[in-house]
Amino acid sequence: MNAHRQTATRKPSNRFDSRLIQKPRQQPRLQRTAWGFVTLAFWGFYFYLWAPLITLVSWVLGGQQAWLQLYERKQQLDPFVIIALPVILAGCALLLIAWAEYNRYRFAGRERRNPREDASRSEIARSLGASDQLAEQMFNAKAITLHMDEHARPLGMTAQLLR
């Protein structure tokens, strides 16, 4: 009875559940690759299970006739298809080019994004918690190393020489 009471009153722990992967990039590459192949295999099996239904729908919608017309009749060319396919191809290409040219003409010379005002150096310095003098030095330098305090506020900087 005492053991039963201990297990009944035990609270669930908030420990890490090892079945959940929180940071997959920290797993070994071989393990990630192996589980990737396992996942791919199961997805393939899942799609394999759908194959009979897809075949039935294709047959109902005329897929069998399309198969017969395209692959079973060997060495018979339909003149309509020989002429129509290149015409359709050229029409699609011309339509795409016309659409692109229309958009280029429509948006030419216009800035599509609203301009934003630049923040002043004093606003940047205030938001960083730095002095105006340090902000001016940072603006004039090309490459710097910032020296920060324990609250991540810039105290100073060292300019680096670029080669």
Alpha-beta classification: mainly alpha
Q: Average pLDDT across residues?
A: 80
Work out the strand percent.
Answer: 5-15%
Provide the gyration radius in Å.
34 Å
Large-scale geometry: elongated
Which regions contain 5 or more consecutive residues with pLDDT less than 50?
A: none
Largest sheet: 2 strands, antiparallel
User: Into which percent range does the helicity of residues fall?
Assistant: 55-70%
Distance between the termini: 79 Å
- Counted beta strands: 2
> Which sequence of SSEs, written as H and E, runs from N to C?
HHHHHHEE
Biggest sheet strand line-up: 1-2
Number of helices: 6
Protein name: Poly-beta-1,6-N-acetyl-D-glucosamine biosynthesis protein PgaD
InterPro entries: PGA_PgaD
Transmembrane segments: 34-60, 80-102
Organism: Stenotrophomonas lactitubi
Describe the model:
This protein is mainly alpha-helical and 163 residues long. Among the domains are: 27-74; 76-106; 129-159, no CATH class. It is 59% helix and 7% strand. It has six helices and two strands, in the order ααααααββ. It has helices spanning 2-9, 29-60, 63-72, 79-107, 121-128, 132-140; strands spanning 144-148, 154-159. A hairpin with a 5-residue loop joins β1 (144-148) and β2 (154-159). α5 (121-128) packs across α6. The longest helix is centred in the N-terminal third of the chain and has 32 residues, at 29-60. It is elongated and about 85 Å long. The relative contact order is 0.04. It holds the Pfam family PgaD. The chain crosses the membrane at residues 34-60, 80-102. InterPro entries: PGA_PgaD.
